[in-house]
Write a structure and sequence with these properties.
2 copies of one chain form a homodimer.
Chain A lengths: L5 E2 L13 H5 L1 H8 L2 H7 L9 E7 L5 H16 L5 E7 L6 H9 L9 H4 L3 E6 L13 E7 L23 H25 E14 L14 H14 L5 H6 L7 E2 H9 L4 H4 L2 E11 L2 H8 L6 H23 L5 H21 L8 E10 L2
Helix pairs in contact in A: 2-4, 13-14
Chain lengths: ~375, ~375
């Protein structure tokens, strides 16, 4: 177990002009995954003498876009190494996920054809599974390798509203304890399910949002504190009488950022059900990924207008946080709720445009590599 | 090989009042599948001594609704028999298919909870595959049992427009020959893919629209001829100058109804690639399923208004045929095209309402049971 943080910062130059809006908004998440390629290559146990079927899974995949290049690289490496195993990859997410878009991308019917690995490589079969990853998703001992990125900070249920903030990382003691307990139960359930699914010797590599050795986490890495700003601006709407106290409270992210110790605990405790099920810790470390939008703004060296920067930064935050605020207003007329949410994000944009220093959405991940005992 | 048709007619009384619109429209297709349960039970090789994973597939599944009760019954029977194998079922269809609805149904989040077998039974795992069934969809020799209902009459491409009719079953000789050749090539491709996927001893049960010993097929079973009426009413729009000759021609179903001999040919010909790949014919027979709407109307014995009957019959036809006519008008303004399609189906409804005798959409299926040599 490596304690020192590894800097998995962006490799190569990010062009904000190229690529689609979606790709831009998820550029940071994609970089983190691409940098995990060595761990995936190792987990696949590439060997020209191997036969049969390699069964892998991508847990909490969304539309498959952020991990597609990594899988394409991993499978291309496997084929280039003379490993001829047939590959069955199953993407998992909730039933409501857009699996059609995912299937089209892998077949080269949408997106970048150069990474449409199902079409570009021989013997790759792609499936979807619409059941949540807190459940066992594969028959016992049939999975060679599992992967999950930026997905398991979501809890299976909201233990309580956070009444003094919007995020558990800044909750008061009693409310924080309830989130921590739910996160502990969820993580053990996730690991028990993976322990049952994995073949002996099979690995599970997990890149999760978490809290690193320096106490840093997503959007809280030394400069402005993103979740504090979310909370302050949301509270301002309450204090101005625009939203109710109940609507303020209900804007609670159903997320928990675990520490490295919390991730490791059930894997190291020999009395835990997870340990007894045979899942072991191979490696764990934190990674820091600089916000591509902030970096681009910094590298522009004054040539970029702060408003333009704000207009790139806020959408990346909004893409994953908006539903928390809009669902807090679910008792209202939809148009009225939408106007309030627009006002909320506009106020954040204005804040950044007026004084851009320190605003960023840097990523902090805890990487956990696990193996089922042989 | 059994040549005599077996009457898989409706068992039990169909209540048109109960159930949702969707269920009603697909009632006939569902009955055909439910009646195939004995063939599925046999194919699953239920055995309390079996271990490991039972891998099955439902090819061309749509939203999984028409086969859900059958699978629920089959898997319940398996469990009740003491067979504890973990079950991995993969539903396949085109990438554009609504897999979300399918996943919700199996988990009991939508539809009838009594047949939500993923929730109701232990050890059942559900997956989707968004690649067409003309391709190999599973690694070599890994599938225990394949099933497909009312899907493989669709061809992988349209070989030509049918200029004198809308359906290949009534096409002129030259155009019919092009459809027959495409259907032959597609069927061989489908069977070769299944031969590769199946385990030795594994079975593939296929219920396809086809032409029976008496020359009957869907909507052409002795009374009014559905496809002839489609063609006559579509030609009437052309003759009235409402659609162009080109638009008339383009309303061509990309379908072919194979005869029993055409289904059997590559399985019986020892020189064929399919035979060489080890796929063998176990059984084949035709089934006739009376149109539930016509039966309901007949059983009402004059108590049902012909217009009411027409208003139940036409939607079941329209549900699967509408896109053929609307896409023939794709060069027009969408609203204008929709109005023409409405007029077309309205004219069919009027025909039925004025003289209901003989109108029906009886189903004719060719059932083919195949096995991979052990």
């Amino acid at each position: 177990m490596t304690a020192a943080p590894r800097n998995l910062n962006m490799q190569g130059v990010l062009s904000m002009r190229g690529g689609g809006y979606y790709t831009e908004r998820t550029q940071g998440a994609k970089l983190v995954i691409n940098n995990a390629l060595p761990l995936v290559k190792e987990g696949l146990k590439v060997d020209p003498k191997s036969e049969g079927v390699l069964r892998v899974a991508d847990f909490g995949c969304a539309d498959g876009g952020t991990s597609q290049e990594m899988w394409s690289n991993a499978f291309s490496y496997l084929r280039a190494s003379g490993d001829k195993r047939q590959i069955a990859i199953t993407y998992t997410d909730l039933a409501s996920n857009d699996f059609s878009q995912l299937f089209r991308s892998m077949q080269g019917l949408a997106g970048d054809p150069s990474i449409a690995y199902q079409k570009n490589l021989e013997g790759v079969f792609v499936y979807g599974c619409g059941t949540g990853f807190h459940y066992q998703l594969f028959p016992e001992g049939t999975l060679d390798f599992g992967f999950s990125a930026t997905a398991m900070h979501y809890l299976s249920e909201k233990p309580c509203e956070i009444t003094t903030h919007c995020h558990s990382a800044s909750a008061g003691e009693a409310e924080h304890a309830q989130f921590a307990a739910q996160a502990k139960a969820d993580w053990e359930r996730i690991l028990l399910a993976r322990a049952r699914e994995l073949k002996p010797g099979g690995r599970f590599v997990c890149l999760n949002f978490g809290i690193d050795e320096e106490g840093r986490y997503l959007g809280n890495t030394g400069g402005q504190h993103m979740f504090d700003i979310f909370d302050r601006l949301w509270a301002r709407l309450r204090d101005a009488g625009k939203i109710t106290k109940d609507e303020y409270d209900r804007a609670t992210f159903v997320q928990y950022y675990r520490t490295q110790a919390e991730f490791a605990a059930p894997l190291l405790d020999e009395t835990s059900a997870v340990h007894k099920a045979g899942l072991r810790l191979v490696d764990s470390f934190s990674t820091y990924t600089r916000c591509p939008y902030e970096q681009h703004f910094a590298e522009a060296n004054g040539a970029m207008d702060p408003r333009t920067f704000a207009k790139t930064l806020i959408p990346t935050m909004r893409s994953w946080s908006e539903t928390v605020f809009s669902s807090a207003l679910s008792d209202r007329d939809p148009a009225e709720a939408a106007a309030l949410v627009d006002e909320f994000f506009q106020s954040y944009e204005d804040l950044v445009a007026e004084a851009p220093a320190g605003h960023a959405m840097d990523y902090v991940h805890i990487v956990v590599v696990m193996e089922k005992v042989a």
